[in-house]
Amino acid sequence: MAQRYKNFLPDLHVIPVFYLLLRESPRNMSKGIRSLAFYILMIVIFGSLMYIIARQGEIMQPDGAVASLPDKPSGLAEGFDAFRRLFLREIESPVAILLLQVIAILLTCRFFGWLFKKIGQPTVIGEILAGIVLGPSILGHFFPEASGFLFREESLANINILSQFGLILFMFAIGMELDLGTVRKKLKETILISHTSTIVPFFFGMLTAYFVYDKYAGHTTPFLSFALFMGISMSITAFPVLARIIQERGLTKSHLGTVTLASAANGDITAWCLLAVVIAIAQAGTMMSAIYSILFSALYLLLMFFVIQPFLRLVGHIYHNKEVIDKGMVAMMFLILICSSYFTQVLGLHALFGAFVAGLVMPANLKFRKILTEKVEDVSLALFLPLFFVSTGLRTEIALLNTPELWQMCGIITLAAIAGKFGGAFLSARFVGESFKNSLYIGALMNTRGLMELVVLTIGYEMKILSPPVFVMLVLMTLVTTFMTAPLVAFIRFCFLKRKKLQEEKMQPQTEGVYTVLLSFGRAGNGRIMLDVAHQMFAAGNRKLEITALHLTVGSDVNPLHADNFEEVSFGPVLYGAQKLDIPIRTRYEISNNAGADIVNIVNEEGFDFLLVGAGISLSDLPADVVVNRSRKFFYNRYLRFLRTPESWFYPGSLLKDKTKVFIENASCAVGVFVNRNFVKANNAILIVASAGDLFLLDYAHTLLKSTRGSVALVNLAATPAQGVGEIEASFARFTSISGQSSVLPGKDLTAGMFTGYNFMLISYQTWNDVSEHRREALQRMPSTLILRK
């Protein structure tokens, strides 16, 4: 031992040398250099010490330790061979396989979700299809080796466990989305619709089971369990998908939307209670042996709703904002969730039912639910649910339907599900007094199944009640009924569109003296600025001004709990501005997958006179937007120019042309695109005319002068008779004679210096395209601008 220390300690004599060198450094050495020197000194000293320890420690190791280690590579070739062996060993480790599976699943689900979103379908359909694509039906059939490596049998247990945990979180979020207070208020109106649209398809499911049981049920499956699962699988409505479809159609606050949502919520609660009973019966085998499971389940529900819920209601009144909801509070909510799921699992009801009930008993305080949903939903929807889709897809082998008879049976099951759900909802809605159109809408919307149906099917499959072929048939039925909802709703809307137009034509004389403006904005602050522009441009016109402020949230996956908050935040500045200007204003909030197309549809179908939209940040000179534009240009010049990426993606002029093209080409009314350059007031405007076709701008300038009592400078860029130079000069002369606050600027070219002193510009869309393409530098100094198309 003494000899070991003797061998080790002499090497430590280097430390005082480095320390003295640093200490004796010049006093005038800068702090940065001294810090760098000290950093290097620490690295050298402790690196040397660790090397000495390693070398001295090797002396102590026994010979057997050296023999157990792999051979040390003697060259680069042998070193690479050792690395390759290590890489091949680790790439097949359970953790690496799981991570690779998650990467493949997330990428595929996001791609298919994006694809179906583009065609106006819920993303859940694309994600379900992605699971089937990664399963034996597509990947396993065409690329068996890749499928065998990626989804090897021994690794599927990890995906199944993670997907089940994700489903628990998802059902918890679904329970929180359901507002029991709203369900109670609408109970008298919706109980007949919700229960009829549950009982009728349930009957159709049991009737179908009666005819298919002999051929398609498992040999050990009792008829009662099979029939009950067939019934419950046809009676489910996907509340989340339905809620988002209603959001996209702008029906959330309408009578149709509230009735449909309340009916679906009531129906979901009923269906999940029925599912709990069905599972209890299936687990026990007979109705008599399931009595004890149902009895203890009733005690569990009494505990949750009469003990836990009152306690949580008190918690919700105290903790209702992010400042006071800490990790301890979130941990307590998750503990309630896990305990509830555990109790229902051991009672034979399945853990998902407990998660659903835990969501239902959460505090009714909407702020509390929003905060908790934010913490749960993003992870469950983005990470865990795609795993469930693939877990389901791996069980869905479409090749099992290998005869015409099986495909015929699949069609019969699908038709029975549609007839039961659509027919039951339609007839009950008509019976309670809904119009024919609304009854069709309710039937189409209630027929949506989506993810909730897959949850039920997975439970039945795992309990070995649903055989693989029946499982595949029901999955395909789920895809068809969910996919058909959006086209069916659009078809119903199309059928009644002519009647709506006739009604609007009859009402048209009542609105002849009104000038209607649709103001569509993105960022909340821009809404108020654009309201000022609309007021200054049109308030002094000959017709009464009526403004509708429209804000769209892009993305069909917006949680209904958050939509009201988005609406409140977005319209706050606009409503405040309208109050200061003392003008009436209507607000309109919608969820959209295609903002441009939806805005055009609103303008054309509702007969607005003018559409005012923002140009976005590409031409803004606000500090934050300038940083974004500079970063965009830098990224293009540095990385994408050599790929011949279109410059219009990164530079303002062409980008504006692309952004507004959908409005310009498809809107049936006049369109104005506003470019915000620190707009305050348009009392010193400049008007650009390049051809006789631009003279319509003078009408807008006349109204603007009456409103602001400011001045307008006229610029004539036309130089040839073909451009109408004579007509323009005559029109300018008449305008200046009528308005004493206008003047004509000399010159036939547009320069950056011409904009000095002006705070607003009027220009036609055609001239803007020419100027932005050939005089881009001049536009860098332009003021706030309104680009108009008559």
Task: List the SSEs and their pairings.
Elements: H1 2-8, H2 14-23, H3 31-60, H4 63-68, H5 76-91, H6 94-118, H7 123-134, H8 139-142, H9 144-150, H10 156-177, H11 180-185, H12 187-216, H13 223-235, H14 239-248, H15 255-284, H16 291-318, H17 327-346, H18 351-360, H19 366-395, H20 404-431, H21 436-446, H22 450-462, H23 468-483, H24 485-495, H25 497-507, E1 514-521, H26 524-538, E2 544-554, H27 560-581, E3 585-592, H28 595-606, E4 610-614, H29 623-640, H30 652-666, E5 670-675, E6 684-689, H31 697-708, E7 711-716, H32 725-738, E8 742-744, E9 760-764, H33 765-774, H34 776-779, E10 784-789
Parallel strand pairs: 1-2, 1-4, 2-3, 4-5, 6-7, 6-9, 7-8, 9-10
Antiparallel strand pairs: 5-10
Helix pairs in contact: 2-3, 6-7, 6-19, 7-19, 10-18, 10-19, 12-13, 12-15, 12-20, 13-15, 13-22, 14-15, 15-21, 17-18, 20-21, 20-23, 21-24, 22-23, 26-27, 26-31, 28-30
Summarize the structure.
By secondary structure, the protein is an alpha/beta fold. It has 34 helices and ten strands.
Characterize the structure shown.
- It is a single chain.
- With 790 residues, this protein is α/β, with parallel strands linked by helices.
- It has 34 helices and 10 strands.
- A 10-stranded mixed beta sheet has the order 3-2-1-4-5-10-9-6-7-8, sandwiched between helices.
- Helix 27 links the parallel strand 2 (544-554) and strand 3.
- Residues 8-12, 504-511, 624-629 and 642-656 have low confidence and may be disordered.
- Helix 20 crosses helix 21 (436-446).
- The termini are far apart.
